[in-house]
């Protein structure tokens, strides 16, 4: 059986869309984070970063959005965070939220950086020596990773780490159908609802249009990468992975009003997180 898929092409640049939808994104995610952040992302960030936050590290948060992870880093022990984003509107929101809370005074700075632009990354390298570099839930929104990957060695301190989270390539950015079926359980004599996803495009998926938050005024572009391509960009520059986790929602997160909600697929991970570093020479 063959499947023909038509993928919409983006008509505007990825960053211009993020400037347009920044207020929508901030209103939905909020200054303190949504369900995805608290239930799925924080557990990964905590397990990967907690041992490294005890020494008041110098941190870089790429694609910071509204500064959610930058503030989390300071709250959990970072001495300073440089929060960057390619969207000027996202940075404006970050600056507003940071300035309104005295806890972050003098600890969070912002800088516009497009991680796909070599000149931007070269200028950022001048501020290198970071103990921690993070990029939370943004890799699937970035058109190319080679410039970012090539910049990590000069950005990181000798023992520094790089931590990323991304929508799961298998179950989220692949081409798939969400399916709801009913089966009879012979052990209980009751009917059961079974939720599953049918993946029909994974190894080669063109950029596609989608939404990050409900009701946003424009669609942004998702860039799918199978795992070998995603990790391969960083392996090629000499990084090694020393941590990988997949997280998903649990039964207590179930959305009873929307059976098709991604929160209800508790056996299928929604987010993939990984930690990388360079081996000492």
TrEMBL record:
InterPro entries from the UniProt entry: Methyltransf_11, SAM-dependent_MTases_sf
Superkingdom as given in the UniProt entry: Eukaryota
Positions of transmembrane segments: none
Name the UniProt record assigns to this protein: Ribosomal protein L11 methyltransferase
SUPFAM superfamilies cross-referenced by the UniProt entry: S-adenosyl-L-methionine-dependent methyltransferases (SSF53335)
Alphabetized Gene3D superfamilies for the sequence: Vaccinia Virus protein VP39
Lineage start: Eukaryota, Fungi, Dikarya, Ascomycota, Pezizomycotina
GO BP: methylation
Key words, A-Z: Methyltransferase, Ribonucleoprotein, Ribosomal protein, Transferase
GO terms for cellular component: ribosome
An MF annotation (GO) of this entry: S-adenosylmethionine-dependent methyltransferase activity
Methyltransferase type domain ranges (all copies): 60-163
Organism, as annotated: Cladorrhinum samala
